[in-house]
Amino acid sequence: MLNVPNTSRFHATIALAAIVAALGCSSGKADTPPASQQASTQGLATHAAATLAPGTPGTPVVVYKDAQCGCCKAWVQHMRDNGFQVTAIDEPARVLDSIKTAHGINDATASCHTAEVGKYVIEGHVPADLVQKLLTDKPADVVGLTVPGMVTGTPGMEGGTPEHYTVLAMMRDGTTRPYAER
Questions:
Q1: What is the structure's pLDDT at 41?
Q2: 144: nearest Cα among 107, 109, 92
Q3: pLDDT (mean) for 107-124
Q4: Is the pLDDT assigned to residue 153 strictly greater than 50?
Q5: Residue 123 forms beta bridges with which residues?
Q6: Containing domain of residue 129, as a range?
Q7: More confident residue, 146 or 20
Q8: Where does the chain have alpha helices with state H?
Q9: pLDDT tens digits, 39-81
Q10: Which whole number is the average pLDDT over 3-11?
Q11: What CA–CA distance (Å, rounded) separates 80 from 77?
Q12: For residues 89 and 20, is the Cβ–Cβ distance under 8 A?
């Protein structure tokens, strides 16, 4: 990962995602949004972060995931269905691990995909409304949200008997605290 200050990492990531998508690189290949969304995502890297207030519809999200992970694709669609402009980047496991490490994700907070939105990291199957709440509330002591593991009933993990789960806030000091119960 680039050695970029936290406040600039998002902007650098969006720009990198746009470059990777434009070049069609085989490593770090970005998912192509449906045709109805392609026009709205063009120019995202250079304009969206500057023109959209965090937490508004159309907020850019970059998701790092495994190309073969169906639940990751379903979560990406959940976020798109809830108004986020998502760029999904497929990465090999070693790169995903380094992205997680760079964001302070450990075994206790890890899931299958990692997203960046605004100045926050979103790990796993966090519901879109809670991402929206995080962006609206802007808690200074929170670096992100996580739903550790693979919980049935979370967005992208529908099917079977839904489980009760806790969305955790990841704090600047490395601890976690409950953010919401579902």
A1: 33
A2: 109
A3: 97
A4: yes
A5: 114, 146
A6: 6-181
A7: 146
A8: 6-23, 35-41, 49-51, 70-81, 93-102, 128-137
A9: 333 333 333 343 455 556 689 999 999 999 999 999 999 999 9
A10: 40
A11: 5
A12: yes
Strand partners, 37: none
What are 118-149's pLDDT values in tens digits? Answer: 999 999 999 999 999 999 999 999 999 999 99
Question: Which tokens belong to 47?
Answer: 């304009």
Evaluate whether residue 1 is within a structural domain. no
Q: Would you say residue 53 lies in a domain? A: yes
Asked if the structure places residue 99 within a domain, the reply is yes
Token pair listed for 49: 């972060």
Q: Are strands 85-90 and 166-171 parallel, antiparallel or unpaired?
A: unpaired
Residues 6+ apart with CB under 8 A from 20: 28, 29, 30, 89
CA distance 146 to 152: 15
DSSP string, 4-47: --HHHHHHHHHHHHHHHHHHT-STTPBPPPPHHHHHHHTTIIII
The total number of residues written for the chain in this structure:
182
- Count how many domains the chain has: 1
Kindly give, in sequence order, each residue whose CB lies less than 8 Å from that of residue 116, ignoring residues fewer than 6 positions away.
9, 10, 13, 61, 62, 103, 122
pLDDT of residue 55: 54
